[in-house]
Amino acid sequence: MFDFLKKKKQNNKVELSPTASHIPEKGPIDEATGKEVLLSVKNVDITFGKGDKAVRAVKNASFDIYKGETFSLVGESGSGKTTIGRAVIRVNPCASGEILYKGVRISGKIPHSLDREVIRNVQMVFQDPATSLNERATVDYIVSEGLYNFHLFDNEADRVAKVENMINEVGLLPEHLTRYPHEFSGGQRQRIGLARAMIMEPELVVADEPISALDVSIRAQVLNLLKKFQNERQVTYLFIAHDLSIVRFISDRIGVIYKGDIVEVAEAEELFNYPLHPYTRSLISAIPIPDPKLEKNKILFTYDPSVHDYSEDKPHMEDIGNNHFVYGNDKELAEYRELRAKNEPLVSVNIGTMEEAREGEKLQDDNIARESILDTPIHDTGNVWYSVGTFFLPVIGIVGWKLFKKFNYMRNYKACKKGSLIGFITRGAIVALFSLALLISIL
């Protein structure tokens, strides 16, 4: 009857089966903090494409989100923040690892009943308020769609009352319900998106940069709305952002992600006072200072990935104390522990002279240029003449494509491979036709 309870007693504790078909009332308790774990991301890999075109967007990501908190995931564009958020709402599949909601696995293939419960309890507020709303539907239908799908109203009067109450809560008027999304400003559209999510009374909301497309004055209003719903309804947020200056004041804990790797997780003040991973320090140093003179002379802390030597000593995520997790190898983790043990806040922003600031900018440009050269070899153009040449000389083309692939010249490799294969196929077709014509002439 209660298959999701599948309990096993061990050390006088009740454990939930990760393969249940329903979501339990409460999730597991984290022994270290004593808090209820609402969402747990465990060793998740997310890959797009196959073969040579495969891109590993998220690598071995792990973190927990406690009930009632705001957990922020920050990083630069393309780091994998939204990819993880979409995996939580079951849009992006996990190549490996698992995502648990209240101790129950919700990633991969799950029962239909559990899938509906996940949709009901986990909602998302999207980054772009314009494209996330159906332009052909009225605001009334957009906000009511979840109510219709899950039959969350007793009668039409009850539905109308719920929708009007929610519209009022997000700062709009009941008269707006008959209008269409294109008739609203960006901030109003985001309020509609927020109303659509909150009317489902979710326990977890994935907020994917909900304020990045809004004016500064509107951002504060939307953030206040999010905080209001959290205080009144005990909503838990996975807040995805790239602006650390905002994240600091709305987050309980922060996770930092770089090119698919979670590199640091800590409480908000702990992270800002003791940013141990160099990438975290570079993000903090990039926060603008609200003083033109100081900002002009600020010396940026730039992150250079080449400082890590992971050839033999492989990195992993580890708690170095104070519930502060950092990604690094054993040598780096020992240094991080030593820094944290001093209990002295680390300074990520330095103000220097104009010459020092210019030198810092030049160093940053050099690092960016060097990194781009390393990512893509300068002569890896995939020129069409590689395909033409290997078409006429396919045997030499095979040698060429093997060499290009070995040295990571992937565009040149594909051009040579394409030309050689077409050359062999063309010659084979000519030989086959000639043989057929010869056979016909003999007969």
Q: Which helices and strands occur, and which strands form pairs?
A:
Elements: E1 8-10, E2 13-15, E3 37-48, E4 55-66, E5 70-74, H1 81-88, E6 96-101, E7 104-105, H2 112-121, E8 122-125, H3 139-150, H4 156-169, H5 186-198, E9 204-208, H6 216-233, E10 236-241, H7 244-250, E11 253-258, E12 261-267, H8 268-273, H9 278-285, H10 292-296, E13 298-299, E14 316-319, E15 325-328, H11 330-341, E16 350-351, H12 354-375, H13 384-392, H14 394-406, H15 410-442
Parallel strand pairs: 5-10, 5-11, 8-9, 9-10
Antiparallel strand pairs: 1-2, 3-4, 3-6, 6-7, 11-12, 12-15, 13-16, 14-15
Helix pairs in contact: 3-5, 4-5, 5-6, 13-14, 13-15, 14-15
Helix count from the secondary structure assignment? 15
- For CATH, the homologous superfamily of the largest domain is named as P-loop containing nucleotide triphosphate hydrolases
> How much beta, percentage-wise?
15-25%
Return the CATH class of the largest domain.
Answer: Alpha Beta
pLDDT < 50 stretches? 1-16, 368-374
Given the C-alpha coordinates, what overall shape results? globular
Q: Quote the CATH topology of the largest domain.
A: Rossmann fold
- Strand-pairing-aware structural class: alpha/beta
Largest sheet features? 8 strands, mixed
Distance between the termini: 78 Å
- Compute the average pLDDT: 86
Q: From the coordinates shown, what is the CATH architecture of the largest domain?
A: 3-Layer(aba) Sandwich
Rounded Rg = 27 Å
Number of domains: 3
Number-wise, the strands total 16
Percent helix, as a range, is 40-55%
Strand order of the largest sheet: 8-9-10-5-11-12-15-14
